Amino acid sequence: MTTKRLVSTYCLAQAVAGGLWWWLVLARPEVREAFWSDSITESVLLSFAFADIPLLVIGSAILSHLVARGSKRAVPVAWIVAGSAVYAGLFCVGQLVTTGEAVAAVVAMGFAVIGSVWAAVNTA
After folding, report:
1. What is the 3-state secondary structure of 37-84?
2. Would you call 97 helix, strand, or coil by DSSP?
3. SS3 of 41, please?
4. 25-77, pLDDT tens digit by residue?
5. pTM: predicted TM-score of the whole model, two decimal places
């Protein structure tokens, strides 16, 4: 499998996984508890949907398509997706450092950060 195909496949998988995760978090309130600390309100987690869904979920799907087609537009989109993953990931790390809670959020975002940055580097 070529690097281009791996990047495209990863981005599609990230889009699907992110979409399913947000659907689960929005549909099943009991799932949310693993991803936030007792120190913050549920609305803080849910407010991330307004940025995460368009930038990380939809952005990953668009990036998958652009990479598969060999579009030059894939490079800036790749870095937007990576940047959004890094930002959310750093928020999760900050939450863990300041509260000692929400380990699941750090783990989940850790995979997204590593994968998104890898995809961006290999799209350039």
Report:
1. CCCCCHHHHHHCHHHHHHHHHHHHHHHHHHHHHCCCCHHHHHHHHHHH
2. helix
3. coil
4. 999 988 888 887 777 778 888 898 999 999 999 999 999 999 999 999 999 99
5. 0.93
CB contact set of 115 (below 8 Å; sequence gap of 6+): 10, 14, 85
Q: Which amino acid is at 63?
A: L
Find out whether 49 and 22 touch, Cβ atoms under 8 Å: yes
Tokens of 11: 């981005």
Q: What is the pLDDT of residues 14-30, one digit of tens each?
A: 999 999 999 999 999 88
Helix axes 74-99, 103-123, angle to 10 degrees: 160
Query: Are 112 and 14 contacting, i.e. CB atoms less than 8 angstroms apart?
Result: yes
- The CA-atom distances, in angstroms, between 99 and each of 29, 78, 80, 96, 111 are 21, 31, 28, 5, 21
The token pair that represents 40 in the structure block: 């913050």
Single-letter residue type at 40: I
Using pLDDT thresholds of 50, 70 and 90, give the confidence band for residue 108. Answer: very high
pLDDT for the residue 17? 97
